[in-house]
Amino acid sequence: MAGAVACVRRFGNFSCLCGFSRLSSLTNLTRNYSRTLNTPKPSNLKIICCRKPYQIAHYYVKSKPKDPHALSWKAVFALCSGISCGIGFSIAYLGQVRDEENDIYKDENIVLAHLYRARDWLHEFKESFAEPSSDLLLPDPLPEPYIQPKYTLVLELTDVLVHPEYTTTSGWRFRKRPGVSQFLKALTLPMFEIVIYTHENGFSSAPVVDGVDPEGFIMYRLFRDATKYTNGTHVKDLSRLNRDITKVVLVDCDSRTSQLQPRNSLVLKKWNGDPKDTDLFELIPFFHMIATSNVDDVRPILDFYRNEEDPVAAWRRNQDLLRKQQEELLLQQQQQKQQPSGGGFFSRGLFGPRR
Questions:
Q1: Is residue 85's pLDDT more than 80?
Q2: Cα 206 from Cα 36, distance rounded (Å)
Q3: Is the peptide bond between 190 and the residue preceding it cis, with omega within 30 degrees of 0?
């Protein structure tokens, strides 16, 4: 021990000569030195002593990174606890009695009653999004002396009037179907009340409708919020249009959207953007025939084309057949006019000319 103290004294004299300051007293150094003899130092501890005062730095060599999954169980436990507390609070809040007189679960166990009320509330909340935004989607028909068309023509926007296309340079663009302007202009007032009823949202579809109909032939616009969401399909409930259902025609390219009133639908083939398409041009005389014939119910006419894969092609074939029949009938009438009366010739030949 005496040798150790002597070494410390020599180190103190040496430090004074080298410029070290504020060294501990000899007693403290002796105590610390004797403590360090009995206490093992960490292998990764290094000491740097500089000539300038107050610059004795201690640092540890960087240890190996810890496993990031070592404490993941704590995060899982905290997450599960938070979810459990949230579910419990939600059930307690949503399961409160809102109408004591009409509470159908008042005789149930208090826990089960809260669960049932919370379930009913969630079901009603879901139905509020699945149902149309209003019971009556269109205003009342126009009173006299205003012109209210007898028939209502309901049109889908996507793949019937326009076709969406996407490119990396220009993004989404909508190609206008050939004949859209002529179709709307030919069938607007006073023949039909034209309504857009699409499964697209109004935020993105309203500007497209403005581009398709700059002259304002379309009277009303209904978007996704006016549909009934059923089994992944936005169904169009024509009974909510506030119009006589016997005089409503829906033109769409998806038969599932008209599953509530299939007899009122004319399901076309999807338009894929072909610039040579003529379906809308050929549908003008079809709807013109319905409007001018003044039928009381459009559904028997639509039933004739409801099972056709391509109603426009079927209409075209029927028109060609009708045209041929009319031509044959006209030819027969002309031939009958040109032929002389057979009975008169026979009587004159048999009995001779009269005197």
A1: yes
A2: 83
A3: yes
SS (H, E, C) 272-306: CCCCCCCHHHHHHHHHHHHHHHCCCCCHHHHHHHH
pTM above 0.85, yes or no: no
Q: What CATH number is given for 151-331 in this structure? A: 3.40.50.1000
**Amino acid identity at 270:** K
Q: What percent of the chain has pLDDT over 90?
A: 47
Please state, as a whole number, how many other Cβ atoms lie within 10 Å of the Cβ of residue 137.
Answer: 22
204, two tokens: 């993105």
The CB density around residue 161, as the number of other CB atoms within 10 Å, is 25
Maximum distance among all Cα pairs of the chain, rounded to whole angstroms: 182
Q: Which residues contact 243 (CB under 8 A, 6 or more apart)?
A: 138, 141, 152, 193
What average pLDDT does the chain have? 79
Whether residue 22 is predicted with pLDDT greater than 50 in this model: the reply is: no
Instruction: Report d(CA 256, CA 233) in Å as an integer.
Output: 7
> Does the pLDDT at position 77 exceed 90?
no
Checking if the pLDDT of 1 tops 80, the result is no
List the alpha helices (DSSP H) in the chain. Answer: 2-18, 26-38, 72-94, 110-130, 180-187, 202-212, 279-293, 299-306, 311-338, 342-351
**Hey, where are the domains in the chain?**
85-130, 151-331
Which of left, alpha, beta for 22 (phi over 0: left; psi -120 to 50: alpha)? left
Question: Which of 184-204 are b and which e, b meaning 16 or more Cβ less than 10 Å from the residue's Cβ?
Answer: bebbbeebbbbbbbbbbeeee
Q: What is the DSSP secondary structure assignment for residue 189, as one 8-state letter?
A: T
Tokens representing 87 are: 């579910």
Find out whether 157 and 205 touch, Cβ atoms under 8 Å: yes
Q: Name beta bridge partners: 248.
A: 152
Query: Could you tell me the sign of the dihedral formed by the alpha carbons of 266, 267, 269, 275, in that order?
Result: positive
Q: Are 196 and 153 in contact (CB under 8 A)?
A: no
* Per-residue pLDDT band at 46 (split at 50, 70, 90): very low
**Beta-carbon contacts of residue 188 (< 8 Å; ≥ 6 apart):** 194, 217
